[in-house]
Amino acid sequence: MAIENWRHDLNIGTVVRNANAFLAAEVHIVGRRRWNRRGAMVTDRYQHVRHHETIEGFVAWAAGAGLSVVGIDNLPGSRPLETTTLPRRCVLLFGQEGPGLSAPARAACDQLFSIAQYGSTRSINAGVASGIAMHAWIRSYGGPAPD
């Protein structure tokens, strides 16, 4: 799993906690190194967390690891997550609360999916989205979730 951290996103702790719950290999934080660890509920002590200064550095790491970059955001052109099977070898990339994935992150994605929602809110936060997306991966493959 990976999340952009340009504005000190408070959802990162929840993403780390979800990654631990689904046994993801690592969490990748792209952008700012500092993040609020309270939401991780101490799981950051057990979960591997890697930092990448730029989206380009993150994408280079993913390519070297043989992983497809899969964006999760409700952007125009996103395909419904509910109607697909995620790639087995992938890293799920989430954007910030509010703006979502940055333009460079969207361009770096091999595939882009959205999570169906029907209420009046524009989006669900990255912490919730990460749990839903990782569960979608687990339903397809069982066992530990992707990066």
From TrEMBL:
Keywords, ordered alphabetically: Methyltransferase, Transferase
Pfam hit, one: SpoU_methylase
Superkingdom, taxonomy of origin: Bacteria
Keyword field contains Transferase: yes
InterPro entries: Alpha/beta_knot_MTases, rRNA_Methyltransferase, SpoU_MeTrfase, tRNA_m1G_MTases_N
CDD domains: SpoU-like
Protein's UniProt keywords contain Transmembrane helix: no
Domain tRNA/rRNA methyltransferase SpoU type: start-end pairs: 3-135
Annotated protein name in UniProt: tRNA/rRNA methyltransferase SpoU type domain-containing protein
Signal peptide residues on this chain, from the entry's feature table: none
Taxonomic source organism: Salinispora arenicola
